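Please predict the structure of the following assembly.
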Amino acid sequence: MSPNGITIESYREVTPKGTVDFLLRLSDRVRGLRFVHINSTKFGGGVAEILTRLVPMMNELGVKAEWEIIEGDPGFFATTKAFHNALQGTEQVFSEEMLEHYLEINRKNAERLRVGGDLVLIHDPQPAALIEARPTEGKWVWRCHIDLSTPQRRAWAFLRRFVARYDAAIFSLPAFAQHLPIPQFLVYPSIDPLAQKNRRMSKKEIANILEALRVQDDKPILLQVSRFDRFKDPIGVINAYRMVKRYYDVRLVLAGGGAGDDPEGDKVLAEVREAAAHDPDVHVLDLPSTAHLQINALQRAATIVIQKSTREGFGLTVAEAMWKGKPVIGGDTGGITAQIIYGVTGYTVNSVEGAAHWIRHLLGNPQLAQKMGEAGREHVRQNFLITRHLRDYLSLLVHLTR
Amino acid sequence: MYNPRAGGYVGMEQARPFVFFGCIELREILGRRARDERELMEGLEQVSPGSVYHHTHGVFLHQPTVTSLFQNDFADWVASQIRDEVLAERLSMVDPFQFPSLEELRDELVSIIDQHISTLHPVPRVVFGDPFFFLQSSLIPVPTGLEARTLAEFRHCLADVDASAIFYHALDARIRRREGEEDFTYWIGQGLGQVALAEEIRRINPYLGGLEQMRFQILRVIDAELARETPSGES
């Protein structure tokens, strides 16, 4: 059981029929097997967030699940941050010293951890070179959580020589897969329906949070939740809102933050604030990364949720919004297209005009918006909850160890 | 036929229990992609049967409740990314369950695309959208622990079982068994001797709303059968 008292049984009321019983039966096939996860942090970021729940759930099902962290110094993490950016397509400079230091830190961690298990799942590039010290027994799989669709060639060529030595790799979207001599599996990320960000909230609780954020709930709310990043196109969202505003009296909330490790973030936030200036119906909320309840309340208060990214890794804010029964209008990119079923749970768009058009369409058809919201919630229930994620990982364990 | 003395249904005693299996699926990315309709056709010709299965039958497993506007991944991609509604409509009307094998299903899909592009110059391609990514499925059956010996027990299990069991028995079985029959109707027809009921279940359209809608429809016809065969006042 996790510290907050959530168990597998807690998911029975929010997951599809038979899901929990099926997981319990599936656990018969994997009981006693060792499943080791390794990443670079226990706190912050989507990977840590999901492992915090997945690892206790696996243990509850009888899998011997462990979660190890690699340790490094600031130089190591500066290099892995550069890897992260380069693999997502931003040009970076790597010196021989940086690469050698990356390998040295991985060697030290391999010595310290002496990792072994029936299945060892290495998350992201930071610990990828641990494969050099793999024991002969057990399967090793590299789990890539980042957008590898257009990597900087040199960075990927360096990393690839390690990835190719794994037994398999897992990507979040087919577009992220690479030319590799090993099997590549597809596993979508997921949301935890019982986490603070997604748990049920009372109307009173939502109202209190909106009041604290100074967002009045007196007219339809359009919401985009995302970092202040050009790829999320916040200025495009404001322009779409202005096209909508001619016909519908609405509020726009742009909620995000996390400028921390992104030097561009402050600049984009300033531009967004300037673009929104003098309009009392546009709210720009710079929230800390721990503002889970605030995000939850905003998503529940919204009429339509927008995720108008021009480039996106997976964009789980789409699934979060759909889980709260909201129709979503998203950019036609990355994981957004895997989450939105066009015309059923929302619309994917390629322009500011497209976003404005479908926002107006839904504001003018509240029954359709409600129906799409309901379809979206069911779509998430079936495809993007943590229980499905757990099932996928256990399936992999069954497949690779049988 | 209801047999009050036996406390169940005629034929029940001889029938072997129906054992419900669910299934887990691994989705493998094949690394092959298509950017136009010819590449889609060539890819379809060359990928494994598991890939044809993934993009046709597998759609039900990936969307148990919500169905897209088009009925398989090929049609969906042609409509949403290439925006060729004509080919999308033609591909969408291919019912994978009418083909006794994946090879025959593959031939039909290839033939439709081939005929369509033979009249088009240039071949329609993706301009703004995403390529088609070929994937393949591997299914592993997993016993759910649920067993039924009577129609009433069957109904009870079906109401609560994981949706993957409906896929495995009602849809995947049509390929697995190779005679177009599926597990539910085979057991109800042959095992319980309820041939008319089996036929009614067989006629349920899986495209109406995915696996959950299938569950609902099957339960509805079984409930009607149970109500017919249970004399008023008896439970």
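The longest helix of chain B spans residues 210-229. The first strand of chain B starts at residue 2 and ends at 3.
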